[in-house]
Here is the input.
Amino acid sequence: NQTMHVTLKKEFIKKNENLLEEGASRIITNFQVAHNGSKFKTSPHVYKIFFASTTSVKPAEEMDPRILGFKFVKFSDIHEGKMNPDFLIGNTNMISFILDVIGQIVSIGDVEILNVGKRQTKRLSMEIRDTENVRLNCVLWGQFAENLESVAQHANDAVIVAVLRFGKLKLYQGVWSVGNCYNCSMVITDPVFPESLAFKERLPKDGLTLTYTHPNQLTIVNYVSVRDNFFLHSPRRTISEIIAASEVVKCVTMATIMSIDTEFGWYYMSCGACSKK
Here is the structure.
């Protein structure tokens, strides 16, 4: 039940796109293997697969339907910061990695229409809980938000279980939350595979059902990008303060280019094999 990340470069997509189907079993041979150092890891596996010009994809016998590759995370482990540090990226203000969660949808809040750049997108916030009644915030964007909004409108006080696969975990201003990661995530409501049915049976028998807050209210707000938020909330230090610092810290350098010397050549240190910095 282990998972691995697989990447196809642009030149290999057309050849293989009709051979690869979500949920289907395939035999893949003659591929390349590299260290899994991706910014967003869809799998904790130390290696990942790359398709090459010699890679072959053939049909295979269907695998056991109970093997779905899910690695559900306990909400208490999220709140207590027990997640694998090898997944963590970024700085102390925001760290992210990809994971699977399953939870009962407890409440759904307002649907917000955000102006992101030159287009509008929807954002939906909800609260989910696990079998230990630990709550976790979940934020969905775009089509994911629209789909959950439709589910909520027809819930009729039901017990709704949702699975977020390849979701993004974020720690922002001391609060943990999960959400969809671009378009690679999957959101499944009321799934019927064994893990979800067992999860539903273990939920607290307290009669708690979905509460939909303000179902007809739309809020239009201006979205502050991660970049703008970083510059607004990150603490700043001068060069002299950094030199005098006694603790180990990670810094992002921001400076103003006063002038460029065009009389003499310039250089930077690079790798002798690939010429990259």
Notes: DSSP finds six helices and 13 strands in the chain. The first helix runs from residue 10 to 16. Residues 75-222 form a domain with the OB fold (Dihydrolipoamide Acetyltransferase, E2P) fold (CATH 2.40.50.140). The chain has a mean pLDDT of 79.
